[in-house]
Automatic annotation (TrEMBL):
Its EC number is 1.1.99.14. Component of a complex that catalyzes the oxidation of glycolate to glyoxylate. Coiled coil: none annotated. Residues 18-49, 69-99 form the 4Fe-4S ferredoxin-type domain. Binds 2 [4Fe-4S] clusters. It comes from the Bacteria. Keywords: 4Fe-4S, Electron transport, Iron, Iron-sulfur, Metal-binding, Repeat, Transport. InterPro entries: 4Fe4S_Fe-S-bd, 4Fe4S_Fe_S_CS, Cys_rich_dom, Glc_ox_4Fe-4S, Helical_ferredxn. It catalyses: glycolate + A = glyoxylate + AH2; (R)-lactate + A = pyruvate + AH2. It is an enzyme of class 1 (oxidoreductase). This is Glycolate oxidase iron-sulfur subunit.
Length: 446
């Protein structure tokens, strides 16, 4: 029997939503196992902000019973996309696919009907299309930030609260930006970095966009750690943004084009593995096969790409041990999972194994370490208050561990936890990427 969406073909967006999501959405049995896993349901207390609630709204919108923009857009936009619900689901509902398809249809309608797009959405789309896919532009921003910090202009800007006047959320995050590395110390694209000692594998390194522009020192240390465990490291010159931010904002076609560019860039490297050090990027890379499913020219190539995609922690455990030089570590270490590393890539044991191996370190598991910190890509910028409510609760769990070092595996999570340290008044604590911890323990210059 045909439903309302099929009976009204003139409503192209309802029909498209039906085509992309209805079968998957019908897999949900509304059991509620996802509710305890959902950070927005816990913080907002509304069924519409839970996975099963959002899925039900998607079904209703696909049946033409509710309006995509008035009734569905906000609940979908307020989802963090952490995908913890997929792990909790007893019937394996592909929530991530439903979520991204819904965002895509909503975004397409907003683009076609300009009056439904806010100024903020238009600015966001322009930035995602005109900045993130362009490595030179991002490096220019990174270099400008280095100069901004080096000259002390950042201190004056904070004193005058200049960034706060533009955006309160951006002002908060500007305060905790890590020191950007000098342009002279940056690694070079197209270069090959030889293994230390016997070569065990040849790998190609995915640098990411935010990591390359703002945290290139972590990328540099990643390369050095790979060298220390016997990997020859190649940096593909033609690589681009992974496309995760685009996919999460409903810009699916743009995300696919970025995926194709990266597949081509890494195929030509001849590497055995493609390594990344950002949970969000890695999740996108390992799902290129899903994004390009049904495209004859790319489907098999995407499958081979995803089979070779690895997180840095997987490689260091498999090819280790690391040659530690530092005999003692100051204080307790705790770990905050990257949602996409844990829930999408299925990597949770390796980071903990590495942290427990650091000489002199005492590792203490944090309560709720597997729950989202509410960074969510750019979620903490566009939904600052909602994000901070979840973060503040998270920091209470951090305090309970008495940790001096809070470790993450994703740049967004790292910035979020740095802000959490400041908001919670943990003066003697610091937030670090796991690569920073391991590099420090191995005596690698930061």
């Amino acid at each position: 029997m045909k439903n309302n969406a099929v009976c009204h073909p003139e409503h192209q967006y309802v029909s498209l939503l039906h085509e992309l999501t209805y079968e998957a959405a019908n897999m949900c049995v509304q059991c509620g196992y996802c509710l305890p896993a959902c950070p927005t349901y816990e913080s907002m207390g509304k069924e519409s902000q839970s996975p099963r609630g959002r899925i039900n709204l998607v079904k209703m919108a696909a049946e033409g019973k509710i309006d995509l923009q008035k009734d569905l857009a906000e609940p979908i936009d307020l989802c963090l996309g952490c995908r913890a619900c997929e792990v909790a689901c007893p019937v394996s509902v592909p929530y991530g696919e439903i979520y991204e398809a819904a965002r895509s249809v909503i975004a397409q309608q907003q683009k076609e009907e300009e009056n439904k797009s806010s100024v903020g959405v238009k600015i966001r789309d322009k930035v995602l299309n005109n900045v993130f896919p362009h490595r030179k532009r991002l490096r220019l921003i990174g270099n400008a930030t280095w100069l901004y910090q080096k000259t002390g202009a950042n201190k004056l800007a904070r004193k005058l609260k200049l960034v706060h006047k533009v955006s309160e959320s951006m002002g908060q995050f500007e305060k905790i930006l890590p020191n950007v590395e000098s342009p002279l110390k940056r690694y070079k694209y197209g270069e090959i970095y030889p293994a230390d000692g016997e070569k065990k594998a040849t790998v190609a390194f995915f640098t990411g966009c935010v990591m390359d522009a703002m945290m290139s020192n972590i990328n540099r240390m990643t390369i050095e750690l790979l060298q220390k465990v016997g990997c020859k490291v190649f940096i593909p010159k033609a690589q681009s943004c992974c496309g995760a931010l685009h996919a999460h904002q409903g810009m699916i076609q743009e995300a696919k084009e970025l995926a194709k560019a990266n597949i081509e860039a890494f195929e030509s490297s001849g590497a055995a593995y493609f390594i990344n050090n950002a949970g969000g990027c890695g999740a996108m890379l390992c799902e290129y096969d899903k994004h390009l499913k049904g495209e004859p020219e790319w489907e098999e190539r995407a499958r081979r790409f995803t089979e070779k995609s690895r997180d840095i922690t997987e490689m260091l455990v498999e090819y280790g041990p690391l040659p530690y030089k530092k005999e003692e570590w100051d204080g307790i270490i705790t770990y905050q999972d990257s949602c996409h590393l844990r829930n999408v890539q299925g990597v949770s044991i390796q980071p903990r194994e590495l942290l427990r191996s650091v000489p002199g370190a005492e590792f203490v598991e944090m309560k709720g370490s597997d729950r989202c910190c509410a960074s969510g890509g750019i979620y903490n910028l566009i939904h600052f208050d909602e994000s901070m409510k979840i973060l503040d609760d998270k920091m209470e769990n951090v305090k309970a561990t008495k940790a001096k070092t809070i470790v993450t595996t994703n740049p967004g999570c790292l910035l979020q936890m740095k802000l959490g340290v400041e908001r919670s008044g943990l003066e003697n604590a610091r937030a670090l990427h796991i690569v920073e911890v391991l590099a420090e323990a191995c005596g690698i210059e930061s």
